[in-house]
Amino acid sequence: MTLGMLSFGRGIAFIYTGGTPIPIIDNTYYYIGNGYIAGIPIPSLILLGTVLLSIFVLNLTPFGRCIYAIGSNEDAARLSGVPTRRYKLLVYLICGLCAGIAGLVYSSQLSVGTPIAGEGYELDAIAAVVVGGTSLFGGAGSVIRTFVGTLFIGVLANILNLAGVDPFVQQLAKGALIVIAVFIMNQIERR
Fold first, then answer.
1. Whole-angstrom Cα distance, residue 97 to residue 104?
2. pLDDT tens-digit map of 150-159
3. pLDDT over 80 (residue 67)
């Protein structure tokens, strides 16, 4: 479903733009991705706010506990009285909202709207989550560990760029990292 919607959304973007970048000429919009508040970049503040809100919701609310229950065993959660369909819809809506905010920040940084922006980032997202220790089979994970995984992937990509490593080799390194992380997680889960 997720990959289908990715392809659907990308297709709409290509149809709407004709496949060409659309320049954004608005200093206020540019400020979202490039401005500072008290010396701190606005995108960093948005990230910090999102991480803190996510930690609060997932760890300190009944909704968060239900989300973990659904991820661990959806049938058991449903039989326990959790409205799984409604909660899954809410999770998809929240993910869409977060993706929309990320898209706004990214297009603000580039000062252009382009249908190919962010292409390939889905692998980075999966890598960050897996490296952060979240199970691909659901029910286990944490926002903090995912944040650490994101930092790790970002620092690794930066080091590889600064070292002049070929972009194709970087993709190979990310793929290998995901495979290694999944292998390690499987070994841990078996114990």
1. 11
2. 888 888 888 8
3. yes
**What span, in angstroms and rounded, lies between the C-alpha atoms of 45 and 50?**
8
AA identity, residue 152: F
65, 171, 184 from 60: Cα distances, Å: 8, 37, 29
Contact 6, 93 (CB under 8 A): no
On whether the CB atoms of residues 88 and 1 are closer than 8 A, the answer is no
pTM of the model: 0.80
Q: Which amino acid is at 124?
A: D
Tell me: pLDDT of 189 over 80.
Answer: no
pLDDT band at 101 (very low <50, low <70, confident <90, very high): very high
Q: What does the alpha-carbon distance between residue 55 and residue 75 come to, in Å, rounded to a whole number?
A: 25
Q: Residue type for 56, please? A: F
